[in-house]
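As a next step, we paired sequence with structure tokens, yielding the entry below.
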Amino acid sequence: MTDRSDCIFCRIADGAFGTDIVAENEHAVAFRDIQPQTPSHVLVVPRKHITGLRELEPEDGELTVGVLQLAREVARREGLLDGGYRVTTNDGADAGQTVFHLHFHVLGGRRLTEPLG
């Protein structure tokens, strides 16, 4: 498990790099992906260091709701509510996770036709 001080997403959430924050709430921050896959590609990251979805605990219920509410707010701010958008996460190296801090991708701005699996 990555230590919080070594985690790039924890440091972004703490304001260490001056990253442009798209939206935030008490539980999470949202910022643009540096390698966007769609015209709108924003990452929603919990402020609490959690390596991946598999580490969510029952006591993280409020945090989980806060993260998903922020994803919806990002979609609203990005103008994606009418046309639709995708929210996705990768959990573990075999799923393609490269930063081991739970995060959700909010994707949209074009028709998403790629199959999910």
In short: The chain has a mean pLDDT of 93. Helices lie at 8-13, 61-77.
